Amino acid sequence: MRHVPLSVGDIFDRTFRTFVRIIGRALPMALIMIVPPGLLLAAALDMFYTSLGAILPSILFAVEPDSELLGTLFWSVLLLSLSALALLAAMVSVRVGVTALSCAELSGSTMSWQQALARATGSRFTRALIQVTLEFSAYALLLTGGYTIITFGAALQTSILVLVGFIALLGGGILAVWWAVQWSQTYAVITCEDVGAVGAFRRSALLVQGSWWRVLGLLLLFGFLKEFVAGLITTPLSLLAFWDFYQSYFALMASPETAAAGPEVFGQMFASLGLGTGLVATVALLLSSLIVPVYLSVLYFDLRARSGEFLQRPRAAKASHSPDTTATLIVDRDPFGEQPI
Amino acid sequence: MELTGSWERAGRSPASAAVFGLLGIGMLYMHGQSFCVVGATLVAGGVERSGDFFADLAATSRLLRLPVQLSLILSQVLFMLLPVALLVRRWHTPKIRNYLRLSRVPGAEIGLAVLATLLFLPASAWTSEQLVRWLGIPQELIAIEQQLYSAATIPEYLWLLLVIAITPAVCEEILFRGYAQRTLERRMGWKSIPVIGVLFGLYHMQPLGLLQLSALGFLFGFLFYTSRSLLPAMTAHFTNNAVVVTLLFLTSKGLPVNAGGWMDGDMAMAGLLFLFPVLVAYNRLARRRHLRVANATGSALITRGRADSEGHAATPAVPYGERTMSEELGREV
Q1: What angle do CA B21, B25, B29 make, to 5 degrees?
Q2: Which of A90, A203, B183, B302 is the most exposed place for a label (fewest CB within 10 A)?
Q3: Given CA atoms A48, A51, A52, A53 in this order, what sign does their dihedral have?
Q4: Burial of A155: CB neighbours in 10 Å, binned 0-12, 13-18, 19+
């Protein structure tokens, strides 16, 4: 497959075509990886909201809550944290798998969902997980720095420190955006080029070099579109997921005297939120994991073409007859094109 | 029709044009409408709180009625109609009306489209009522929502027809059927009807109305696909919305028509039973017209499985050629 720099329309078109071609293979892999931790998260959220709903009256009336209920709440928080981590790891894994499928498709080769699953759980997954952890730690450090200074400034009642904190927060935010765009290609680099976690940062930044604003614009555009798609699907799903909650809410609205009966009513409403929240979050994450890697992979090939990685100089014998400007475009440094998967 | 737009020249897929066009314009419209409504709300100001939740809500609804209605018209024209025209011109062809199939059809087809919509309405209203009952939405809330669509005087009624019936019928049909379905049809044939129908339901962001709106989307899609003109779908859409506005107007005038609770399951079922023969008749009329045009012009309009203008093999289900009826007949609306 020939790779040339793409226009925005080409990027749209190629993203859609790639998505259509891989969705049949990406979906089973994504379901296998995301549904189990998603269900675990839903169960944990259900347990959390139920115990919180039961404790709510004690909190409102400032009464010592039942120790058994507090124990359940503690375990539910622990389970919630573990399942959320498992779900995030599953998301990274699916993104690696979908990136592998997309890169294979864009390189003109094919990959089965089992092969993608193997890739999504192999060494590339470990490297992607390390890279994601490092990346988000960097963002957290950047943003918490400013907050810490503001908090100290407020505690010491020093306006200048608060101002410095705000400037640090703003600067940190700008730097975080800068890095996010620079590191947008790390998944593709780790998956397609077999680069290590730290090397992926450098390689991604190198690819984005010279096209930073363009990449930012495209990431924003695709991000908005993805959110819109997720909104279209999760809005009706939310009605089903929160049916009990809405029923209680409307019942409360219809007869306000029920609310005066006590905070137990609100506790019950609260308890009905858990399972639905978990299910909607899982579906949203599933959609995001299926869509994002596809357009990032298309961008990755576009950036490589833009940095001239697919350009091959004509052979020496013919070089004298043809100037460099007529160099042909061929697939180069393409792991999927060179070796069958 | 010569497809000379940038998307066509680049040989890109019509399916991706339909998907990204619909998503892009949908996103623009949703955000644009939100800005318009927020702006209008800020201009309109607030109401004095009385402490009664429903009374306050009703007062706010009355205050915001006109600004919200103006925002609806403005956002539909600015963020839906205009972008579609620009998109067609830039991506596909300068012949916007031809591309969107804004072509005339005989009155009988329009009549059947209106009849089909009227027959579908009882089932739609009945389903809505059931869902509202299951969820236990308070009647006070429904009444407040209906304030937006109810008119007390004739000029107000005509204004509401413009806001609720004419504008959405034109703008939404041009986006969903005229652009999205027509573009997707080049790749998917009849399968574009359910795809765009479901998207039509989802785009309204009304979870309780998803089922009914998707079914309406199917109906409008069928009318558009069969006649290869946007006019029947527009008329059907107008009929659906106008009936609601009219019923609410008649109710406010004290006439014995109750907009709520006027449907039962039997009436809904009967409506659906009569709907199918009407659709069959509509299909026959449209096909006969296409055959007549094909014979008159000597063109092979009814060609199954013919490749489209870009060389993409059309699906075997594509019943008619790529050219619009307006091109064949040489007349446009």
Answers
A1: 170
A2: B302
A3: positive
A4: exposed
pLDDT at A132: 93
Query: Residue A50: which of A238, A245, A279, A274 has the closest Cα?
Result: A274
Residue A47 reports pLDDT greater than 60: yes
> For residue B26, what is the nearest residue in chain A, using CA coordinates?
A228
Cβ–Cβ contacts within 10 Å for residue B62, how many? Answer: 13
Q: What is the pTM of this model?
A: 0.82
Q: Is the pLDDT of residue A330 over 70?
A: no
Q: For residue B10, which residues of chain A lie inside 8 Å, CB to CB? A: 7, 9-10, 13
Residue type at B3 in one-letter notation: L
CB atoms closer than 10 angstroms to residue A338: 11
Lookup: tokens for A339: 């070796």
B1 near B308, Cβ under 8 Å? Answer: no
- Tens-digit pLDDT profile for residues A108-140: 888 888 888 888 888 899 999 999 999 999 999
B contact test, residue of A244, A250, A255 with most B CBs within 10 A: A250
**What is the reported pLDDT for B261?**
53
The answer, for A7 touching chain B at a CB cutoff of 8 Å, is: yes
Q: What is the ipTM of this complex?
A: 0.80
A253 touches chain B (CB under 8 A): yes
Q: How far is CA A324 from CA A307, A321, B182, in A?
A: 16, 10, 45
Report how far residue A119's alpha carbon sits from residue A288's, in angstroms, rounded to the nearest whole number.
19
Confidence of residue B299 (pLDDT cuts 50, 70, 90): low
Residue in the structure block whose two tokens are 């790390």: A186
Which residues of A are less than 8 Å from B202 in CB distance?
A: 232-233, 235-236
Task: Indicate if the pLDDT at residue A311 is higher than 80.
Answer: no
Restricting to A residues 143-182, those with a Cβ less than 8 Å away from any Cβ of B are none
- Decide if B10 and A225 are in contact by the 8 Å CB cutoff: no
Structure tokens at A289: 């994991």
pLDDT mean across residues, chain A: 84
> Which of A225, A244, A248, A249 is best to mutate for the B interface (most B CBs within 10 A)?
A225
* Two tokens, residue A326: 């007529």
Other C-beta atoms closer than 10 Å to the C-beta of B280 total 11
The nearest CA of chain B is from the CA of A2 a distance in Å of: 15
Lowest mean pLDDT among A52-61, B232-241, B271-280: A52-61
Decide which of B139 and A235 is more confident.
A235
Query: Residue A156's pLDDT is what?
Result: 85
Give residue B253's pLDDT band: very low, low, confident or very high (50, 70, 90): low
Contact criterion met (CB < 8 Å) for B202 and A235: yes
**pLDDT at residue A263 in the model:** 67
Given the structure tokens 């180069």, which residue do they identify?
A332
List the structure tokens of B129.
Answer: 């009522």
> Using CA atoms, how far apart are residues A119 and A123, in angstroms rounded to an integer?
8
